[in-house]
Every structure is written in C-alpha cells, then in structure tokens.
Amino acid sequence: MLFHVEMTVNLPPTMDAQVTQDLKTREKALALALQRSGKWVHLWRLAGYYANISVIEVSGPDELHELLTSLPLFPYMSMQVRALCPHLSALAQNPG
Amino acid sequence: MLFHVEMTVNLPPTMDAQVTQDLKTREKALALALQRSGKWVHLWRLAGYYANISVIEVSGPDELHELLTSLPLFPYMSMQVRALCPHLSALAQNPG
Amino acid sequence: MLFHVEMTVNLPPTMDAQVTQDLKTREKALALALQRSGKWVHLWRLAGYYANISVIEVSGPDELHELLTSLPLFPYMSMQVRALCPHLSALAQNPG
Amino acid sequence: MLFHVEMTVNLPPTMDAQVTQDLKTREKALALALQRSGKWVHLWRLAGYYANISVIEVSGPDELHELLTSLPLFPYMSMQVRALCPHLSALAQNPG
Amino acid sequence: MLFHVEMTVNLPPTMDAQVTQDLKTREKALALALQRSGKWVHLWRLAGYYANISVIEVSGPDELHELLTSLPLFPYMSMQVRALCPHLSALAQNPG
Amino acid sequence: MLFHVEMTVNLPPTMDAQVTQDLKTREKALALALQRSGKWVHLWRLAGYYANISVIEVSGPDELHELLTSLPLFPYMSMQVRALCPHLSALAQNPG
Amino acid sequence: MLFHVEMTVNLPPTMDAQVTQDLKTREKALALALQRSGKWVHLWRLAGYYANISVIEVSGPDELHELLTSLPLFPYMSMQVRALCPHLSALAQNPG
Amino acid sequence: MLFHVEMTVNLPPTMDAQVTQDLKTREKALALALQRSGKWVHLWRLAGYYANISVIEVSGPDELHELLTSLPLFPYMSMQVRALCPHLSALAQNPG
Amino acid sequence: MLFHVEMTVNLPPTMDAQVTQDLKTREKALALALQRSGKWVHLWRLAGYYANISVIEVSGPDELHELLTSLPLFPYMSMQVRALCPHLSALAQNPG
Amino acid sequence: MLFHVEMTVNLPPTMDAQVTQDLKTREKALALALQRSGKWVHLWRLAGYYANISVIEVSGPDELHELLTSLPLFPYMSMQVRALCPHLSALAQNPG
C-alpha cells in the first residue's frame, strides 16, 4: 500500500561539516537502495525548500515506520505521513 | 515541468443532487482525458478525506493555471500548488 | 492494520429535525454493525465536543476510505486520519 | 476514567548518547509497569513520528498529572490531554 | 473533579429574534440552576467577547459531557475543555 | 478587577539543577504570598501540562503587569492575559 | 485604564442594503459620541482592511464590555481585546 | 511609495451568474484604468488560485485604502497589505 | 503617515546580564529621543507581555524601516507592521 | 517563467560578527549579479522585517531551486515559493 510522505530537513547550521556530509552520504545511499528495492516509489524535491515529497510502498504502517526511522536524517526531519488509496477517477480504475 | 497539487473538495451539503452528480461526471471525464493526454501524471485519493494528491506535468505556470481552473469542481476546491524538481538522491539522477 | 481517526461532526443548526434524526439513526446502526464486525475497534466520545476518537482495523487504506465514506454523517464530518503501529514499549511487544 | 493523551518526543540531537539511552530505558520500564498495573490501557506508535497515542485510566486529573509528570521523558515531550467518555453508539452502551 | 471550559457563542445574525431570546432565557435558567447545585463553580464573561470562562465540578468526563450538551446554546457554541488539578503552589496545598 | 492568566513554563532542560530549584522555590514563595494577600485569587494546574490557569485580582493593568513580571519564572513563561467581567447569568448577578 | 481593541467587520454580502446603511449610520453616531465623551481615545483604520485599531479608556473590564457590546456592528465584528499599561520608556514616565 | 497586496477572491458559488459577470467586468475595467494611471504597478495571478499578487504605488496609506476599497470585488476579497521599501542589495541602490 | 507596530522582545535567558542591561539602556535612550522628535507617537506596554504597541509617524516605509532597524533590540524582536489611515468615523474627520 | 519568493532571514544573534558580515557581502554580490543577469527581476524589502519579496524569472523549477540554494544565506532563510502567471486583467494581456 502507498503512503504519501513529506519530509522537511532541519539541520542546525552549527553542525560539524564532516558530520553533516557523512549523514547526507549515508542518507543518499539508503534512499537509492530503497528506490531500487521498489519501496521508495517516488522522490521529488520541493523547489526552493530543503524538503521532499515521497511516495512509499510498504506492507503496512509497521514497515513504513521502520523504513522512515531508519533514515540517517530522521532525527533532523519533520514528517507528514498520509495514507493513499486509488482514486475513482484515476486511469487505472477506468480501463478501456 | 512538474507541479504537486493537493485538491480538497468542499461541496455544500445543500447542493442539488442532480447538479452535484453532473459536476462530478464532468470532473471525472476531464480528469480521465487529462490523464490520457499525459498531463495529469498521478492522481491519488487521500484515505478518509474528500481530497486528492495530484502531480501535473505542464509547460509552465500558465498552462497549469488554465488546466486547474478548467476543472468543473474548481469553484468548490481549495488548492495547494507547489513546484517540483528532480531530487539529487532520486534514481533517475543516479543511473548506473 | 490500525488507523486512528478523529471525527468532528458539524451539522448545520438549520437542518431539518427529521433529516437530522434519520442521519443519526443510520449512523448509529452502521457504527454498531462495524463494531460487531470487529473493524471499528474503539469508539470514544471526546468529553464536551460533538466529536469522537476511533480506532479502525482494516486491510489497508482502500478499505479504510470505503468504510469512512460510507458513514451517513461523512459529508458533515471533518476527519483526521493517522496510521498506527506497535509501540516498542507496549506490553504486547514485551511479553514475559 | 479515561484520558486520551498524545505525546510527542523532542530530544535535542546534541544530547549525550548515554544520557539519551538511560532516559529511554527508564521510560520503557515505567511504561511497561504502568501498563501491567492497568492504568496505561493503550499505547500505539504514530507511524512515521516519534510520538504515541495513549489511553490512560486513572481516578481523576490529579492521578493523571502525577502519572504523566513521573515519566522520565516528560521534560522532552509535548502533550495533548483530552477527557474521554462513553459514546452513545459504542457497543458497550448498546448491549443485546 | 474540576474542568476548565471556555465557551464561545456563535449565533447566526439571521436567527429569528424570538428563537434567540427563548434560547438565551433557557440557557440562563439552566446556568443558574447548575450554579445553585454547586456544579457550575465559576462563570466569568471574557470582556469584549461573546464568550465565557467556566469551572465545572463533576464526578467525571461522563457527567461533564452530559452537563455541557444539555445547554440550550450547545449547538451554537465552540468549546475548549481541559482538566484541572491542584497546583503544588496553591494555598490549599500549603496550609499553615 | 479580575484577569484570567494562563501561564506555560518552558524551562530549558539544560538549565543547572540548582538554579532551577532556586527559581522554583522563589516562585512558590511569591505565589503563596500573593495568594495570602488576596491578589492571586485562583491557581489551578492544567492536568498533564507544565502550565497553570490563574485568576488575578488587581486595581488595573499596571498592577497586573508589575505582579506578573515580578514572578521569578516570568522570563521562562509564555502568558495569555484576558480581562474578565461579571457574567449576566452568574449567581452573583442574579440574587434571590 | 486603557484597552487596545482591534475590530474586524464581517458583514454578509447578502445583507439588505438599507439594513446595512442603517447599522453603519448608528455605528458612526455612537462612535462619535463615545469619542466626544473621551472614552474612545483613538480610532484608526487599518489600510486595506474593513477593520480598525482602537484605544478605549474605561473604568474597568465591565465598562469596556458594556461599551463594546453596545456597538450596533458588534454582532458582525470579531474583536481582539488587550489591556495596556504605561511603558517604562514612554515619555510620560520619563519627564524632564 | 509601494505596497505589496495579496488579494484572494471568495465569490459565493450561489451568486447569480449575471451579478458575478457584472462585478468581474467592472473589476477588470477599473484594474486596467489603475494600471494605465501608473498606480497599479504589477498584477500577477498566483498559478492555481483565484488570487493575485499586486504592487501598488500611492502617495500613502490613505490613497491605498481608497483605491482598494473602490474595487468592485473588495467585499468578496481577503487582503494582505504590506509596505515595501528599497532593498540595499537591489540594483537601483547599487548603480555603477 | 502612521504605522501601527507591535514589537515582541525575545531575549535569550542565557544572555550576559551586562550585555542585556546595555542593550536596554540604549534602547530606552533611543526610544525617548524618537518620542521627543515626534516620530514615535505612542508607546504602550501590553500588560503581562514583554511587548509593546507603538504608533510611528514617518514620511514613508523607507524611514519606517530605517527607524525600526536602528533599535538596539531589533535583532531580538519580532515585529508586526501595519499601515494606518484616518477612520471615517473618527472625530477629526467629523468636525463641528 | 516567474516565481514569487518571500525570503525571511533568521541569523542567530550569537553568530560571529565577521562570519555574518562575510555571508552578507557574498549574498549581496550574488544578488546583484543575478539581477544584472535578468533572473532576479524584482527585489523589495518588507518594511520593518528582515525579509524580502522577490520575483525570479527562470526556465523552470530546477533552475529556481539551483538559484535559491546557491544563496549564501539560504541555510538561514525560510522561503515561500509560489508560481506566477499572467493575470487576465493585466495591461500586457489587454493591449490597445
């Protein structure tokens, strides 16, 4: 099932540059791996913000929570999580 | 280019049932046509809300405005529009 | 899986008394049926508000959306939907 | 009587790892003890958030305040407390 | 036990004058009766607002809900309900 | 005249324990003295919050400001101040 | 004593023109009378808004409430009331 | 001097179509005239919203208020007005 | 022309006492000088808050910005600035 | 295409003066260069705030994001980004 997640990153400007770089490198590696696994279905940047819009496909809220809290930047992000379901006017619901 | 649009529908409960039905029918027809044209890229229902999350691909803000205001339900919807751009950690930006 | 839903009812004071009564009667009947089916797991009144806190167990966001929008009072309620998962400090996660 | 409590944890990222671990260990131990005592009736994680939804059964606001402020994480949590009462459409109110 | 309730009245300006007057008369009569019974302990007007601050003493959330929803103006009021408990610095907690 | 004051305390968790204790001791001593003087008429704890609801009787806004800013915890509190006046439905306004 | 009041007018566009005109005429007459009496000390328009900033001098919250609720437009205004007191850096507090 | 004004239009869907059309025609005529006069310096549509961003050049708040309240749609718009001044990093402030 | 400014001071409790005192002394001296010059027309304390309500008379937004940013406490204050104009019901607009 | 950007600067008061000055110098140099290039079309100061209103012309959200995140003050600014399009009542849309 799909969840719509908006993640906003709040890194303290005083954070050590090396620590910051390390966090971002690990975040990117995990994000890529999760996309390759098919779980992180969409990942867009919100133009002008240090934030993203993501669509995550998981087996349920448990896996979603495990996935999100495993992100290295999780302690520095505020999240908004919402469940998605098929829209009656979506093409996939109206074949033919 | 991509825009992320969240649409929330607020139909007055006192609206005439036939008028409501007609509005919804026309809305669905146009939504399907716009999806077939490739402009309405994603359309999800927010579970539990009379609202959707959409991703729209247009040539710019002008076409976006024209598309959104052409929706029959536009006068009854509150919109949140945000521009998307590629995320540096997205798979498409990191081939190989 | 479990969803936490907060429902706030906003019935217009000008609504016809008989229509209101009919809506409430059907709402109650469906709420009882859904509780008996095991899907509507918890239902509490927020003291002093025309609102409730509910915990719903469904197979996913699709069934949740179908259940909530089937409620007769749905057009008159504002909803807040959030996904729940087991807490690491919950008793069920720490047997023995 | 029942209270609905939503707790959101805000631990400063600069907090010493050992201090953090100690706080969490003591928090979990007390949470388990209070659940075993029957006072902490429900404890769910909000998927994607460092937050929980709890239902607490106490003799009144005094005991509730004592319980909540005894939590080791209390100084790092923001709380929302609301009183619950039986819902007229709840199964327990409609036997038979 | 004590609850702190803030009630804000929103009467539609188009309401029939006689209906309004009747509602207010019944509201006042019940408010006086509940004060005489000792349950409505304090009742103040917020200067400049059609709103009041009340302190209600009841046996629990159930009785509170029953009391508040019995008010003739309840359908026209927005409520904020919060539970009170003794303050450690209050005189009653520090005799002598 | 009466003012309704809601005080929320925000002590930084990093504050020195002795300094914190000293502040609280002085706050309590002054709160008790002001209650004995009849100026701090009511003082309740909001259950589950490090906050209180107070009713203060003073000769006017000047004295109120002097009183509130003399509190040792004032620099760590956010305040909401509102003026109260007699309610037409209060018992004191309706003798007999 | 002084109170700072911000009044925002919300007249329904469907209101009968004659009723509206009559309300405004009576409002203006009373506003002028209260200014002449010295109680309505300042009255400014917020540029671009159907709203005003007022400073009212009264004997206390009771008189303030009576004055504000006597305004013909009161049922159509939302108010924000705050008590003022002399500022230690004001000229009047620092003669010489 | 310049003011930054954001105008959001809220026309009731039940408004008579002819009345709506007439309002919009008069609004457009006045907007064009004010642009030709040089007072309405910029006028942009916010993509996806029935709202605009305007920059108005007037002799002061009085003329601004007169201009804005003369707009036929004024009773149906919510406004946000803010004063602008030259930015120290603007090209005009840094010639050469 | 007149501007209505609400200034709220947020001094970090950890600020050095001497630095704080120096800031306040310079702020007060400048506030007095600006009042004597006729530019800072009104200055009131909001009772119970470390905040003030000010009315400033300047030649335009440029001078307003220069004046406000010259205040020693400016980096520690949050401001709300709004333009004022004469009210049609004000005494000065209705002589005789 | 045009984007409307509101930037609010939040520099920590404890920041080293030389670091702050260096940031501001680089910010100004880049802002001037981007204005000379024609991309930063408008730049106004919001009177009384450490904030600006900007209109940026770019080829799309990607270039906008690159431009904004290249600003030296970006880590210390909160942004609000909105897409603009021609207004039907704008002079440029109504020649002749």
Give a structural overview.
10 copies of one chain form a homodecamer. In chain A, a hairpin with a 4-residue loop joins strand 2 (40-46) and strand 3 (51-57). Chain A is elongated, with a radius of gyration of 15 Å. Chain A is built from 2 helices and 4 strands. The first copy, chain A, has helices spanning 17-36, 61-69, and strands spanning 2-9, 40-46, 51-57, 77-86. Chain A has one domain (2-93): Alpha-Beta Plaits (2-Layer Sandwich). Chain A is an alpha+beta fold and 96 residues long. In chain A, strands 2-3-1-4 form a 4-stranded antiparallel sheet.
Straight-line distance between termini of chain A:
24 Å
CATH evolutionary superfamily of chain A? Dimeric alpha+beta barrel
Multimer state: homodecamer
Radius of gyration of chain A using CA atoms only: 15 Å
Strand order of the largest sheet of chain A: 2-3-1-4
Give me the CATH architecture of chain A, please: 2-Layer Sandwich
Q: Which two chains form the greatest contact, residue counts included?
A: A-B, 29 and 29 residues
| Highest CATH level, the class of chain A | Alpha Beta
Give the overall form of chain A.
Answer: elongated
| Strand element count of chain A | 4
Mean pLDDT score of chain A? 96
Number of helices of chain A: 2
| Series of H and E elements of chain A | EHEEHE
Major sheet characteristics of chain A: 4 strands, antiparallel
Count of the separate structural domains of chain A: 1
The proportion of residues in beta strands of chain A is 25-35%
| Spans of at least 5 consecutive residues with low confidence of chain A | none
